[in-house]
Backbone:
């Protein structure tokens, strides 16, 4: 099956891109040390995980409250402006 020049050219480009990607990731791993094996990350126990979860939940609740308050204030301001313009 002969496809012609354009498809074979595309295949060559794909192969070259694949090679470049592999070499770039290998260089990145060597320079950052992310490819080094044998390093064990610190493990956390259940108590620490629960504390982290509680902190994250509290932070998320605070963010959500701020967003709700901000949205409510903006809606009140728009309502007042709309009311003044229309009536």
Residues:
């Amino acid at each position: 099956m002969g496809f012609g020049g354009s498809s074979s050219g595309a295949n060559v480009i794909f192969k070259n891109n694949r090679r470049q990607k592999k070499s770039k990731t290998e260089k990145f791993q060597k320079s950052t040390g992310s490819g080094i094996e044998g390093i064990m990350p610190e493990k956390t126990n259940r108590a620490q995980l629960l504390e982290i979860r509680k902190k994250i939940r509290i932070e998320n609740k605070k963010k959500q409250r701020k967003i709700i308050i901000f949205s409510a204030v903006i809606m009140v301001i728009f309502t007042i402006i709309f009311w003044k313009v229309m009536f």
